[in-house]
Write a structure and sequence with these properties.
Blueprint (H helix, E strand, L loop, with lengths): L2 H14 L14 E9 L15 E6 L3 E6 L7 E6 L5 E8 L5 E13 L2 E8 L3 E10 L2 E9 L5 E8 L1
Antiparallel strand pairs: 1-2, 1-10, 2-3, 3-4, 5-6, 6-7, 7-8, 8-9, 9-10
Length: 161
């Protein structure tokens, strides 16, 4: 094979391959999800941090993922993650176990790990949470790790539509 033919073949492949869809596209997590189970069973979160919400509503666009849940109180809390990996920072209410309230800074960040979405959430009350979100067989699975002053916890949460 001549150098010209090899160059032509490589140019042709370079032009055609980007048009071929990937074998596995990234999942869409949008929908209303109801809590089914946790491992360990009856996972309580960590002193109120990371408690599984009975229902979560996820809205996903090409640029953002928004999660609405009651996990941070009785009214739904809306948390936004930018899918380009940049931070989202905002002020929001927080309360302690003693009932005192304060306004804290919240920070979120998302990154893709193949077909899983890794969501990071921090606040200035020294709480951190990492959720690894995936879809399989119609189930939404969240592998959750929390850290805060005091004990840290880990769990796998399962949701269905």
């Amino acid at each position: 094979m001549t150098t010209t033919r090899i160059a032509f073949l490589l140019l042709t492949l370079a032009a055609v391959l980007p048009a071929v869809p990937s074998a596995q596209g990234r999942p869409t997590f949008s929908g209303t999800w109801k809590f089914v189970a946790s491992t360990p069973a009856n996972y309580p979160g960590s002193n109120g941090w990371g408690v599984p919400s009975p229902t979560i509503v996820i809205t996903q666009s090409p640029t953002e993922l928004t999660i609405e849940s009651g996990q941070f109180g009785t009214s739904p809390m809306k948390v936004v993650y930018k899918l380009d990996g940049s931070d989202t920072i905002w002020d929001g209410p927080s309360s302690s176990q003693s009932g005192s309230t304060a306004v804290v800074k919240w920070r979120t960040k998302a990154s893709w790990d193949a077909n899983r979405l890794v969501l990071y959430t921090w606040n200035t009350a020294l709480n951190q949470m990492r959720d690894i979100v995936s879809l399989s067989d119609g189930r939404l699975t969240i592998v959750r790790a929390t850290e805060q002053p005091g004990p840290s916890t880990n769990a796998t949460l399962t949701y269905t539509r």
